[in-house]
Design a protein that fits this description.
The structure holds 2 protein chains of 2 kinds.
Chain A: E1 8-13, H1 32-41, E2 49-52, H2 59-63, E3 67-68, H3 78-95, E4 101-106, E5 116-117, H4 128-140, E6 145-149, H5 156-162, E7 168-175, E8 199-204, H6 210-228, E9 232-237, H7 254-264, E10 268-271, H8 281-292, H9 312-330, H10 332-342, E11 346-355, E12 360-369, E13 378-385, E14 391-399, H11 405-421, E15 426-431, E16 436-439
Parallel strand pairs in A: 1-2, 1-4, 3-5, 4-10, 6-7, 6-9, 7-8, 9-10, 14-15
Antiparallel strand pairs in A: 11-12, 12-13, 13-14, 15-16
Chain B: E1 2-7, E2 11-18, E3 21-29, H1 35-46, E4 57-62, H2 64-70, E5 78-82, E6 97-99, E7 103-104, E8 110-112, H3 116-128, E9 133-138, H4 146-158, E10 164-167, H5 177-189, H6 191-207, E11 214-217, E12 223-225, H7 226-229, H8 239-251, E13 258-263, E14 268-274, E15 277-278, E16 286-287, E17 290-291, E18 299-302, E19 308-313, E20 316-323, H9 337-343, H10 352-360, H11 367-395, H12 401-405, E21 414-418, H13 425-433, E22 436-438, H14 446-452, E23 459-465, E24 470-473, E25 478-481, H15 489-506, E26 514-526, E27 529-541
The chains are: A alpha/beta, B alpha/beta.
Amino acid sequence: MILMSSKLGLVFFPAFDWAISPTHPEREERLLYTRDQIVEEGLLDLSLIREYRPLIADDRAIERVHIPVPDVSSLITDAHRIAAGGAITAARAVWHKEVKNAFALVRPPGHHAMRVVHGGRGFCTINIEAIMIENLRQEYGLRRVAIIDTDVHHGDGTQDIYYHDPDVLFISFHQDGRTLYPGSGAICELGGPNAYGRTINIPLPPGTGDEGLHYITDNLIRKVLNDFKPELVVNSAGQDNHYSDPLANMRITAQGYACLAEKLQADIAVLEGGYAIEQALPYVNVGIILAMAGLDYRYVKEPDYEPLQQAEDITAAIKQQTADLLNIWGNRDRLQQEQLANYGEYYKGSRRIYYDESGITAQQEECVRLCPVCPGFMTIASHAVDGFRRRTRILAVHIPLFSCPECRLEAKERYNYAIRSGQYHFVYLQDRPTDKLSRT
Amino acid sequence: MLLGIDVGGTYTDAVLVHQHRVLRSTKVPTTRGDLLQGILGALDGVLDGNLSGDIQQIALSTTLITNAIVENKTDPVGVLVIPGPGMNIEPILPTEADVLTGSIDHRGREVVPVNRTEVEQAVARFCQSGIRLFAVVGKFSVRNPAHELMVARWVREGCPTAEYIALGHRLGGALNFPRRIHTATLNADTWLIYQSFVDAVEEAFRMRRLKAPVVILKADGGTLPLKTSRDIPVETIFTGPAASILGIQALCEIEQPSVTLDVGGTTTDIALFRHGEPILAPKGARVGKYLTQVRSFSTQSIGVGGDSWVRTEQGQLIIGPERKGLPAALGGSYPTITDALCVLRETGWGDRKLAINAINSLDLGRAEEVAEQVLEAAASRVAEAVSQMITAWEQEPLYRVHELLHQPNFNLKQLVGVGGGANGFVQRVARKLGCSVVLPKGGIVANAIGAAVSKPTLMLTLRVDTELKEMVFIEEGIQQPLLENCCDLEGVIAAAKERLSIMSVAMGLSTGEIETVYSEIFNVVRRNYTTGKIITAQVQLRPGILTKVLWEAGDLDVQ
């Protein structure tokens, strides 16, 4: 038995030979300068850091989260399997107490990938944090998890996967969706009726700096984390809130990110976005690694660093928002009862999803059983149309890992009914208690 | 004829090889206070006067530099580091270090200049305290050495008594600031010791009228002309293990995935072979507690050897790492692994009665059974270290999808044992690892044989700057206009190899395969525009052996 270690586990997989396309921001060089900085600093030689080689996630690992249309291998490349496998490797190292915490510095990212995958969206095809968490849950019985998404873009994929899961707290701060992709992540998105208040969105005004970031961390995120008492804290560590990021408008520094990592004390951090590959990533990543390893990060500084003063109206807006969210959090039980009273036995919702990498639009109808004893089974009907107007209709039935016998039985009936109806090209049963994804 | 000399910490070995045969070999004590005497003794053991003229090459290996580092017997160095922003460097700095302002970023751009007054004050302090050796190392200096060069100039101006200044960027092209600091510091703090070693060697050769070219082995099995090596002593660390690895290549065939064990008196050195070639340490050699950038075979030293002291503590059998003189069977006072082998009649020499007495003193039972236990315990330690090394090789981080998908397992097939304590012991290690055993004859002087038959190598560094449109052959200091086909990495590597090949022919060296030791390409950015590329390629004649060596029963016994 290996004793509790004070080490940081690091899975560094820059995939120097993989890109979405040659001119895409998600390309070979994305972590090249980060590699240069990490190697030049000598971080990989430190006895406090243990480097791991990522495993390669197989279909089963991925199907614990996703409904792949039509199947896993036609959607993803080996690089995606390695990014997901890297996150799983990091999580296992922490779970087995070989290291105290871990950082999966891998690409491509995953937080825009939702449960049903018709294609890629927002540079993401499969959700690597969710795959990591669901594999820990399946293999080791982990249940209660908190995910803090610190990417500048709303983690809509992760939110979708856990929206109805009362055992997962999902907190995302991001540049206000009215000014940035994907547009979602408003305060009012608080989780499904049976998991109400377990989704917390903190949209920040463009121009928010370290001051605002630490205000919400100290006054809101830490309070919510303390109350929720997760078994595991995961950080979706996007780095595009940095002041130099070309795709967003925030003003966070490497110091701000390192200090955030120190405050969050995440068990596992997984890299998400961040495309200032030369001016930000080398410094932000070194800062996060040092902070997670408990080392001195005071001297990490961007070459063009200048102290930034956050505008007063931004500070005021953030304070107001924090107060509103704290109020919601404090009254979450009452608010949840009100939500449940609005619905009968089922929650129903519909939305339109655009898979921008693949040019596919899907109309989805979601139905969740508001089970009094378990998270409740769920069906998702998805009607996708691609750029050539080819249509794919699928129905997915999801039985949660911690579901009750009644939900399991009813879910299987729905599955069989959908097959008999002949309405769908594919009908899926994601049966987590038996760890199997069936497709008909 | 080829002459190989291995100056070890305890013994100096010499062998004379002629046409696949070891003509003569000798083993004499190393004379630490007066190196000259020991070297002369070794020479006299293998030469008689009229042979000297027939020697074509003299090759050396030594553990003196490694020992000086490990035993902390090096000279004080004034270390000047320019870390810029990043990790706090203080905890890893050598004691006599001064941190300077200034910074260069990962693209080689100056962010903060160095401060002359500050440097001059630091140099004056060092100089007044009697320091004569300096090391100057900057973060990202391999991307832009301007700060190191400037500081070095101010050191020379401010401290006229300075004898040597090690510059980080000259000692290795790869990124890794802490390793660069240690490499430069070790190069400086062993510089004086190394000068006296080279002086003694040259004096000995002069006295015996040896005129053949003299080379010294590097840790990667390549060679350096002795004269050139004077300013890069750090390259000669681990020439001992390198010599032993070449010796093994000379004495036997290693086609299958193998592990070699050099079982000496105090330690067992482990190395890995795949496809007939020894595996290199991925980032550079570790010397004692220091991680360096010195290109080196991947070797590991375990504190278990033939003379390892065997004892019991609270009923537990403890082996090594201390050595308490000779084995009891050879007149020593303490039980050792060799004594255990002697008890079991596996040595073929030594006084078995003395060995039995020593093993009985452990008070654990019948001598034969205890001896077996001792060997089992020692073999377990070594087998475990071998397994860990193989696992580390298999788990070595990779950064490309293609590499990760096609990485093979090591698949160990055979164990090769050399060194005085190998016979009897290596077989037991092999049993634990489930592989076959080879014990090449002549393995007892494998080091000196390896040195003797080492293939002379030559290294060349080509640096191309496409913005300035120039190419520089660093070692020769030749600068010339950029050739058209040298604007990408492949072109630069090809040009470097071509020139190395021409130089080798001119120097009468067999060309053979040329390996790329190091290569890097990065963009030069000025005011947010990529204005050119800096491409560096370092190539070397692949190290190896000049000839296989057949050891026959009639050959000299060196026991």
